[in-house]
Structures are given as structure tokens and as C-alpha cells.
Fold this sequence. Notes:
alpha/beta, eight-stranded parallel β-sheet, 7 helices, 24% strand, elongated
Amino acid sequence: MNLFYIQNIGVDREAFLDEEESRHCIKVLRMQAGDNLDITDGEGFFYRAKITDPSSKKCRIWVEKKYLPFNITTPKVHIAIAPTKNISRFEWFLEKTVEIGIDEITPLCSFHSERKNIKPDRLNKIMVAAMKQSLRATLPLLHPIQEFHQFIRTAKHREKYFAYCGEGEKRLLQHACRPGTDALIMIGPEGGYTEEEAKEALQQDFRAVSLGNARLRTETAGIVACTTLRLLNEKEQYTASKI
């Protein structure tokens, strides 16, 4: 299955692939008029369409039906994470967490952050490619970069965690997390959170958690957190379906 991406698509109507998607469809995959292809709108749905004009610059299609994906993931996973100094590592984090199944990402700027600017357009392209590769129908929401203190004061999630390497009481994420609920976890920069930041997070009802005994890079910690939360929720869904 080759998946293409078109925003604001509907059934029983004409639509067009953009130039990049058209070139891949016609020049790389060698698809022709009358061939079927699958589309995602990035909003949670798949569509079946037929090629009517196989132009490599603006491929025209007719959208025939809409259907739900097989890998619907609930509850939601939101990771707030400090972008890495080497942006390719942050891009790798985005790619892999989209494949695993993340719903929201907030780039976060804290005291030890080494990068305070990102390029949203480039990052969104990476996320779209990962969504299509993993056959997901939902494009995660990438928020603008936010300052740490403002973010923790406005976060409304019931389940809020931050990965912390400092002293103090903390449980492993898989033991602290309550399956079946939306969750937010913050991942700090390479220098971690300061004691003041940790205290402020606790005051805002975030819970300190550990991701294990190893010292992880920021992007690795983000992937571990995403995987842990997703597997806990999928296990809960699987168990409930067997009852």
C-alpha cells in the first residue's frame, strides 16, 4: 500500500496531488490512469481514489470512498521536548515517534536548552513522510516552540509527568502512568532540568518519573517515553477487547 497525503479532501469529488506527490506517483511508482490509490487527510481518515489524469506535475484523481484506518490509537500522547543542538537528532525523534504513534509535540525551551529556534515547515514534511510510511491517518500536531515556565502553567492534562534525573522520589514511567488516559510528558535538554525548574513543575502538579537506569540522550528519552505510553495504552485496549 502506497499512501498519499491531501488536506481538506472529500468523497465524490475531484482532487489533485501536489507536484512532489504527483512526481512520486507517476514517475517513481509508474501509476497510470485508472489505477487506484489511497489517500490520508491527516485528520484520521483514509480515502480510496482513482487516477483520472496521470500528470507528473499535477496528478488528477477522483475520490471514491472514505474509510477508517486499522491502527486507530487512543488515548492521546503529548510530548514536550527540548530541541537538540544537532537538529538532525530532533528530526529523528519526530520521525520515529510519528511512526510509533504520537499525537502532539511541543518544542520546549528551558534553562539548559541548546536550541531556541526550529523550522516548522521542514519538520512538518518529515512528519508527513513518517505518517505515510507507517500507514497512519493522523498527522500529529506540532506546536510552536514554548518557554518552559509558561508551558507548565498552562498545561491542562490530568496526567502530567516530567523525566527527571535529579535527586528525589520518582517512579518508573510505566508504573506511574495510568493506562487509558491522555498523558503529557516533558523531556529536558542534555543538561536536564535545574532544581528550580523541577520544583516549579512539581508545584504545577507534574510528577517526576524515571525512564530507567541508563543515561539517555534527549531524543532517545523522547522515543522511550512515547513507546512506553503507547504500549501501555495499547495493552489496555487489547485487554479490554478480550473481556
